[in-house]
What does this fold into?
Amino acid sequence: MLGLETSCDETAAALVRGSVPGPGEILANIVFSQNEAHAPYGGVVPEIASRAHLEILDGVIDQALKQADLALEDVDAIAATAGPGLIGGVMVGLTTAKALALAMDKPLIAVNHLAGHALTVRLTDGVAFPYLLLLVSGGHCQLLAVENAEKFRLYGSTLDDAAGEAFDKSAKLLGLAYPGGPNVEIAAAKGNAKRYALPRPLLGRSGADFSFSGLKTALRQLVQGGDINGNDAAASFQAAVIDILCDRTKNALAMFRRDFPAVTSPCLVVAGGVAANVAIGSALTVLAENNDFNIRIPPARLCTDNAAMIAWAGLERHAAGACDPIGIGPRARWPLDPSDRGQGDQRQDTA
Ligand code: AMP
Ligand code: MG
It folds into this structure.
């Protein structure tokens, strides 16, 4: 399966081989991050992103084929992110996939970017359905039960910012370079997390929704107050995020147990770019262990946006007999759980 990913600021192509339930084999996984193009703005600029995708996607696909030592004819089907995401970028990837599918007479598989994140642990570990997913990325923050490759049950979602967005905006406030998440983690490791008292919205409430905007505002006020220690502020911010993520996930573990009592060895899966944060991963590991859940966190390069996850999600859909019409359109919003009203993509423009 050839997979293409262009929904945000990564231009990516990958080739994946395998069969359901996985694990699969990654033959090539090329990711071109447009960080340099967006860095001056401190966030992703949609128009710059779509133009950059258009310029480099062909070359990225060529590179992936070379790395896998395959020709386009060898590919069984072509998968591309069809949403949710920045619409211009999604159009570039999906239209390229359509052109290749038409020219090569191959099936086209439209993939939900979030399903790509959700199914990555099957590519890496062959984790069996159902499992609980904490999806924490630049555009999303959700807790869902993954029942199969097409069926997801939403337990909670952010009411405002995504977790990665909170990291990126906080980094900007602290004067750390874009993309901020990894830099906040580095600064936090050198700081005192108890130095500044920051709020933890929704903590202790029922349900599994998230909120980060109050935390971000408090950090802004702290910074505007002047004369702060940046490392201590980063550590205090990260500690607040960890508390929020663990508290909300704890409730979702109970919801999952209630909904799937027959699952004897339940698994918590963490996906999305923020899952690359080691402190967050450790805290969630302790939480899972204390609640008799296994935990799986894919390697960082498969947590941040990539096309191997899109190829794998396409492979799962293809194996289930799916094939999409050439007229299928790109979608800016596309929630995994149809009952999720309007939260398919929480971020349109972070700059
Ligand atoms: P994605 O949207 O899945 O590509 O993930 C990108 C998001 O993950 C961005 O908001 C990053 O700031 C965030 N991110 C990446 N690495 C880390 C990290 N080590 N700690 C916190 N956030 C991170
Ligand atoms: Mg993503």
